[in-house]
């Protein structure tokens, strides 16, 4: 699976009333759409080992924990504007680590599902992205899946670094030995189209108050999300 999160996906999630499973949100924003898109793919999980990377103010993990063995992987250091203290996650254990560092606190082949919402875009360099991807395959069980909703800004003419990251995420799913996509792979260009779900302008305006350096970008770009999901095949080597 690789694509932008598109409006039909969100509308179907509303038709299926999945938003009720995740509870009320204070404002409807990009993260709300990302939650719905990710949850719609893994909502039927039962009795599995699941890790949310960079869980922060998680909305999806508490719901999944009712029927699965779940952990939150987060140092709660405020990275990427995230929370600086552990959140109320009930009985969900927290592993204080960052994916991509090979931390032994996250055991090898321990999880059936590894997912994140609005996290991967904060992994800055291509080298760190490669380490993140390698590490998620390390901790996945054979046959396990990774699934990430990833923020992106799209302007009329996409910036080269956005195109590069777009292609990197697609390669995770479609070009990594020992990985197969869990759904269709979008083979088109990194360009905006009218069916792509976008962050509401009132939310972009509010975010500008806390990050004024990004106001210019947010006034000329659409805030969108990619979704990337792959399966670690059972006979993967290395």
Layout of strands and helices, then pairs:
Blueprint lengths: L1 E3 L2 H9 L2 H5 L7 H13 L6 E5 L6 H5 L4 E5 L20 E2 L15 E7 L8 H14 E15 L5 H15 L4 E3 L19 H10 L4 H6 L1 E11 L6
Parallel strand pairs: 2-3, 2-5, 3-4, 5-6
Antiparallel strand pairs: 1-8, 6-8, 7-8
Helix pairs in contact: 1-3
Biggest β-sheet description: 8 strands, mixed
Q: What is the count of helical runs?
A: 8
| Name of the top-level CATH class | Alpha Beta
Task: Name the average pLDDT.
Answer: 92
Q: What is the ordering of alpha helices and beta strands?
A: EHHHEHEEEHEHEHHE
Percent helix range: 25-40%
Estimated structural class = alpha/beta
The total of beta strands comes to 8
Shape descriptor: globular
Radius of gyration from the CA trace?
Answer: 17 Å
Query: What's the assembly state of these chains?
Result: single chain
Beta-strand fraction estimate: 15-25%
- Give the low-pLDDT segments: none
CATH topology assignment: Rossmann fold
């Amino acid at each position: 699976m690789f694509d932008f999160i598109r409006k039909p996906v969100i509308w179907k999630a509303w038709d299926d009333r999945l938003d009720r499973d995740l509870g009320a949100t204070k404002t409807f924003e990009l993260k709300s759409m990302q939650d719905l898109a990710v949850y719609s793919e893994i909502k039927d999980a039962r009795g599995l080992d699941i890790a949310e990377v960079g869980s922060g103010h998680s909305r999806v993990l508490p719901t999944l924990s009712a029927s699965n063995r779940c952990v939150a992987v987060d140092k709660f250091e405020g990275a990427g504007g995230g929370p600086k203290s552990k959140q109320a996650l009930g009985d969900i254990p927290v592993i204080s680590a960052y994916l991509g560092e090979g931390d032994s606190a996250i055991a090898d082949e321990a999880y059936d599902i590894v997912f994140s919402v609005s996290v991967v875009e904060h992994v800055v360099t291509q080298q760190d992205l490669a380490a993140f991807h390698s590490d998620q395959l390390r901790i996945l069980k054979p046959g396990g899946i990774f699934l990430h909703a990833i923020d992106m800004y799209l302007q009329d003419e996409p910036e080269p670094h956005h195109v590069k990251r777009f292609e990197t995420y697609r390669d995770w799913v479609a070009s990594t030995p020992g990985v197969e996509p869990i759904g269709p792979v979008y083979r088109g260009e990194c360009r905006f189209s009218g069916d792509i779900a976008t962050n509401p302008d009132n939310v972009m305006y509010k975010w500008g108050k806390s990050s004024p350096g990004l106001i210019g970008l947010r006034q000329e770009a659409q805030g969108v999300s990619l979704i990337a999901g792959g399966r670690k095949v059972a006979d993967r080597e290395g």
